[in-house]
Amino acid sequence: MWCQRLVLTLWLMIACFVGGLQDFGFVSSLQPHGRPFKLNSLKDSLPNIQPRARRESSRRRVRRKHTYNLKRTPIRDAKNRNALCLDGSEAVFYLSRNSDSKYWVVQLQEGGSCGTYESCLHRSRGPLGSSRNYSDYLTGTFVASDDPQENPMFSSWNKVFVPYCSGDVFVGRRGKDQNDYGMDMCGHFIVKAIFFQLIEDYRINKPGTEILFGGASSGGLGMFANIDYIEGLVKPAEIRGYNDGGWFTLYPNFGETANAGPPFFFQVLSYMFHNLWDGFVDETCRANMPKAEACLYGELVFKHLSAPVYVFVAQWDSYQLQELVHSKFPTMRLPPELPSEAEYLGKFGKNTHRSLRRVINSQKDGVFSPACFMHSFSGDNLTSTKQTLACEIDGKTPYKAFSEWFISNGTRGTYVEEPLDIPECNPSCCSKLCIKCRKPRPSVVYDEPTPQTISGNGASRLQQSVVTIWICAVLIYSFVFWRDVVLL
In the record, which residues are listed under signal peptide (predicted)? Predict the structure, then answer.
């Protein structure tokens, strides 16, 4: 009797051991598509790892060939060309060279601007105002990426990335001796010096050369101001531009009286443009506008540009709604919390659509404008960029629409959602800023049952409970078995 029970106990222990192996992931029956747990995957998140050990670990990692593709390159004779950052340091650019290609991307960095002495002084002590601590290499993003998965259209092109260190949306022409704040605001001179150097070193002004010139936010404004001037420098090469999130409209702030002249921010812009920057804008636009600074607004400068351009702009530009607002006016809350805010946003979105009318009807230009609360689609923040570049209109993402425009020479690639009376975001760009999303189209429901898998914390809890049951069963059976042996 006791021999049979001993054999049964051994069998139960073996079954428990095999079940434990399965439950701990050696046989992934519960997680057929999961990754096996590795202890060293926590290495970089442990708080007691020494910095040196962390650096050594990062050196051992295999890096993709597309990372750190841009190399820091000095601007020759930068001081004499007035290519200087806010703090007087010499501006630089980053280059990814492909000697087999005659196509070039020139991307201007985003980064807002500064209007007060304190904000400009603070800016001059960091990377948006000084080149002193720039790294030797950078990884390009969006059209400056060398990764064909991320950037299939332009990955093999030559890339130039221009860091933004002048605080003047790339239009300034005023050195510290003439600047009210005693700082160098020479963004136009930086752009000009870089293009002169590219012409001298790589002959980018030869026939057959194509150039894509643009940027996000302040970089987009810099493109509008400089592109026709640059087009004159690089002829007979062809140049096209893109503006991502740099399309602002002359629309009053929330709480500001409408129809009372230009918005209050226009006065602030006028001061910066004339007293700090001595701003450079498109020359044809300047000749036809009563005030030159108006040429920084896309809807006013667009009709004067000869170079084809593509515009990315959300129906509700969150930067204009929340940042380009004087302290005397309330800041728009996104999502809106009052009926008056929702009503204002409905009118704001319609005004954005109205401002794009010329671009929509153009035969050479294009635009991507979804019903979203956002600013730029391809900024430096890679986390938000992953979400914004996934936004869709009629199944087209911003990058795909842009590529379609580029390939078709402007005959296709325009995707614009109709304005709404009440904010209601496109579901593909829904975020914490949205009040609600449009209902997505119903998906097809299959009657065929699908196998269920357990993953994550639920799988872990199930594994622990199964192991506990096995252990309890062994202990109970062992207790009964040895009690019977003693009684015998």
Answer: 1-20
Chain centre to alpha carbon of residue 359: 23
Please name the residue ranges forming H helices in 235-364. 264-271, 283-288, 298-301, 318-322, 339-355, 357-361
Alpha-carbon distance of 125 to 113, in angstroms, equals 14
- Shortest CA distance to 382 belongs to which of 59, 144, 166, 97? 144
Residue 460: the pLDDT is: 38
Instruction: Answer yes or no: is 55 within a domain.
Output: no
Among 89-103, 198-212, 419-433, which is the least confidently predicted range? 419-433
* Tens of pLDDT, residues 322-366: 988 888 888 888 888 899 999 999 999 999 999 999 999 999 999
Highest mean pLDDT among 159-173, 262-276, 409-423: 159-173
- In 79-217, which residue ranges form alpha helices assigned H by DSSP? 117-124, 187-202
Strand 366-369 relative to strand 373-374, pairing: unpaired
The answer to whether 86 and 168 have CB atoms below 8 angstroms apart is: no
Residue 38: its pLDDT value, please? 27
Please report whether residue 368 resides in a domain.
no
- Within-domain flag for 410: yes
Give residue 208's domain range: 70-311+391-416
- What lies within 8 Å, CB to CB, of 409 at 6+ separation is 308, 364
Question: What CATH number does the domain containing 259 carry?
Answer: 3.40.50
Q: How confident is the model at residue 48 (pLDDT cuts 50, 70, 90)?
A: very low
The pLDDT of residue 420: 82
Residue type, 276: L
Strand residues in 123-209 grouped as ranges (E): 137-138, 158-162
Cis peptide bond upstream of 236, omega within 30: yes
Q: Is residue 290 helix, strand or coil?
A: coil
DSSP 190-223: HHHHHHHHHHHHH-TTSTT-EEEEEEETHHHHHH
pLDDT band at 22 (very low <50, low <70, confident <90, very high): very low
The total domain count for the chain is 1
Residue, of 176 and 55, whose pLDDT is higher: 176
CB 184 within 8 A of CB 84: yes
Residue 149 included in any domain: yes
**How far is residue 162's CA from residue 175's CA, in Å, rounded to a whole number?**
19
